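It is worth pausing here to work through a concrete case rather than discussing structure prediction in the abstract. The textbook approach is simple: state the sequence, then state the predicted structure, then interpret. We follow exactly that order.
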Amino acid sequence: MDNSFSGKKIVVGITGSIAAFKVAGWVSALAKEGADVSVVMTESACRFVAPLTYAALSGNPVLTDMFAAEEAHAISHIQLGSEADLVVIAPATANTIAKLAHGFADDLLATTVLAASCKVLVAPAMNSAMLLNPATKRNIKLLKELGHGIIEPVSGQMACKTDGPGRLPEWDDVREQLLASIVEQDLQGEKILITAGPTREALDPARFLSNRSSGKMGYALARTAKRRGADVLLVSGPTALFPPHGVKRLDTQTAEEMHSTVMDNCQDMSVIIKSAAVSDFCPKNTMAEKVKKEDAEFVLKLKQTPDILKELGENKDKHGYLLVGFAAESCDHRAAGEKKRIKKNLDLIAINDISGKNTGFEVDTNEVTLLDSSGFTKLPLSSKEDTANLILDRVVSLLARKKD
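Step two, the predicted structure:
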């Protein structure tokens, strides 16, 4: 987990919906990631979850009444709105959405939003019929026109036992939308293709050749690039990971499939990051039926798979993209990485140390060395999200250098 929320002042406004219990988990997650969370509750919200719950989870007093709050904290609605890095209204009822859309200021939450100088995100949660009512749809449209972001509700079974849109999304998706609202959008307008995960080369219908790649590094790159404003296409080998919020994913199995998918989509990209662990070899012959143990041959004939990175390097100047590669090394990291950077015509290479217990395959942390034409930088051991952000920082600087 990265530290993007650390030190950020986030106001969470909670209104009268049964979904208020779900937001308790969001408040807890934000506080654990280092955010300074202030919870503002409407009178009706207090009927669903006690303010003490949010106070315990956030570590701060909960504000519920505009006048009582102002006695303890001078012009608290002004301070909350002006000092916050982000205001999140969740769950947002139809009534609260109507108030915000028309500029009402009759409670602490509404006045805080009116005084806010930061981004405001609104997460509607209500019965499907109420959500789809023309009045609610018009009010949500008005919020968008005012510049507020909408955390779109998802479909599912409601508390009223009906199915349809109106549920709050899960925290992982919400987290990405919150982070995208507070981090610098320095990749806005860039189209980035990222490959991730292993490939599988079939021996027969039951067996295959592969490697230990989990895809975590590539997925972290896709997630953080999207968060920073990029339009991201993720070409993924088989993994157990869910696609990051807002990222289009194309699934592949073999090196040949990944090669075809990458080449079909590389022409209009501004950046390509090749972090997948592609099999270097595949069987010369794949058996149509499962090979029985007693019938197996003990010599396996192999052939080379397409070298996707090399072909991308050969076409780089024609298409104009920035090309980033990865090298998984267990020794002589810099020498091996520099050799690969030059041979494959890369703008940047991330040398992945796979010799340690906390780096490389299947773990949540990584320690890489970045090499480009100007030299090398050894990154600290950190989470893969932190590592992804540091790699993207270098990509941003290389793009700026390229455009100068």
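Step three, interpretation. The two ends are 34 Å apart (CA to CA). The first helix runs from residue 20 to 32.
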